[in-house]
Design brief:
The complex is a heterodimer of chains A (about 280) and B (about 100). Chain A has about 280 residues and is of the alpha/beta class. In chain A, about 35% of the residues lie in helices and about 25% in strands. The chains are: A alpha/beta (about 280), B alpha/beta (about 100).
Chain lengths: ~280, ~100
């Protein structure tokens, strides 16, 4: 089963929920894979002792123009939505950092003058935690904008090479844009983490709208549940959205988190808040 | 000769825009005919990435010879260079003053 942990608003606790849920499932003897898909700032690995294996090189395919074959017809430029390939007179130039790697220019070229070459965009680290959770982490190179492509690389690698797990947990980037859709679109269940603040509710609504368009089953986990107001709870009730657990706004949890601690290890009393997620997804 | 100036308004007395590809308007001044054309650049100003490339190419297609801006981004610069468009760095003056500064 594939579970994506997402949120509209950033900083609600996706990492907290992802790492603890992975730990809980492993404790119950499931085979668990945790993939940190928040490739612009991954941090799940801070909460585990990981024995790293060899890195995987994610890449996109970008065009390379053969100036001897190019007639300067400009079909490639017309095809490109990102202005990454530009025809000026007889010359055609490529802007690698603007290219999303879709391959349309190569397809559009009537002269067969474009070939595709690999451009590295980051790093995919992988290994096993001390608890034997299979662990993946995508990291986009600094200055890159092809976030979604790296997530595509990461999830494709997992789909093709890591087939023997009971649970696949995908810790998503925040928001409701392309990288989030890429992370959630193949999940069987989406866990939305939020907080009962106006900002948390506003962004939860956007996330719910996105997930309903994707046609996915989902539930909400309320973090820092003791702050804010009742609007979030009323919204979930009115929309018939299931709340799968909550954690209070607690200095001791924050301190533990800041030290790379897992709630399930440091505060056994909160274990019950994760069991509802567990019972929801284990079937 | 055609001179392209990013502008905050639609007349020769308008101040130059502080940005190149994301300027509000472009004024294309033709020194042979002493006429000018105003191009509404709002769509580019609000677009996502790659605007420098697009505007550079549009200016090349219009047959512009000189582009004036306070600063050119690296992508725009590469396109303009390839298109043999001369780049001049000027700022805080009107479009007319900018044209007069480079026309001789």
């Amino acid at each position: 089963m594939k579970i994506a942990i997402a949120s509209g608003k950033g900083g609600t606790g996706k990492t907290t929920i992802s790492t603890n849920l992975a730990y809980l499932l492993k404790e119950n003897n499931y085979r668990v894979l945790l993939a940190d898909c928040d490739v612009e700032e991954p941090n799940d690995d801070i909460f585990f002792n990981i024995e790293w294996k060899e890195n995987i090189e994610p890449f996109i395919l970008i065009p390379e123009v053969d100036p001897n074959k190019c007639t300067g017809c400009g079909e490639c430029t017309k095809a490109c939505q990102y202005h990454a390939i530009v025809n000026i007179g007889k010359k055609t130039i490529v802007f690698p950092e603007l290219c999303h790697g879709c391959g349309l220019c190569t397809y559009a070229c009537p002269e067969d003058a474009i070939r595709e070459v690999k451009r590295p965009i980051g790093k995919i680290s992988n290994g096993y935690t001390a608890e034997n959770i299979r662990f993946f982490k995508g990291l986009l190179n600094i200055g890159e904008t092809v976030t979604t492509s790296l997530i595509t690389n990461l999830l494709k690698y997992i789909d093709e090479n890591e087939k023997n797990y009971d649970f696949y947990l995908y810790d998503s980037p925040p928001g409701t844009s392309c990288p989030v859709i890429e992370t959630t679109k193949n999940a069987d269940y989406i866990l939305l983490v939020t907080e009962p603040t106006p900002f948390g509710l506003n962004d939860l609504k956007m996330a719910v709208e996105m997930i309903r368009k994707l046609g996915k089953d989902f539930g909400v986990f309320v973090n820092k549940s003791t702050i804010g107001n009742d609007d979030l709870w009323n919204y979930c009730k009115a929309e018939n959205i299931e709340i799968l657990g909550q954690l209070p706004n607690s200095r001791e949890i924050a301190t533990s988190y800041s030290n790379g601690g897992l709630i399930l290890k440091d505060f056994p009393a909160y274990r019950k808040e994760f069991l509802k997620i567990y019972s929801k997804i284990k079937v | 000769m055609k001179i392209a100036v990013p502008s905050q308004g639609n007349s020769l007395d308008s101040m130059m825009d502080t940005r190149f590809a994301r300027a509000k308007y472009f004024i294309i001044y033709d020194t042979d005919k002493e006429t000018f054309e105003v191009i509404d650049n709002e769509q580019n100003a609000a677009a996502g990435g790659g605007v420098g490339v697009k505007v550079g190419q549009d200016l090349a297609n219009m047959g512009v010879n000189i582009a004036i801006a306070p600063h050119f981004g690296p992508n725009a610069e590469q396109v303009l260079k390839t298109a043999n468009i001369t780049m001049k760095s000027l700022s805080n003056i009107t479009v007319k003053e900018a044209v007069d500064a480079v026309r001789q």
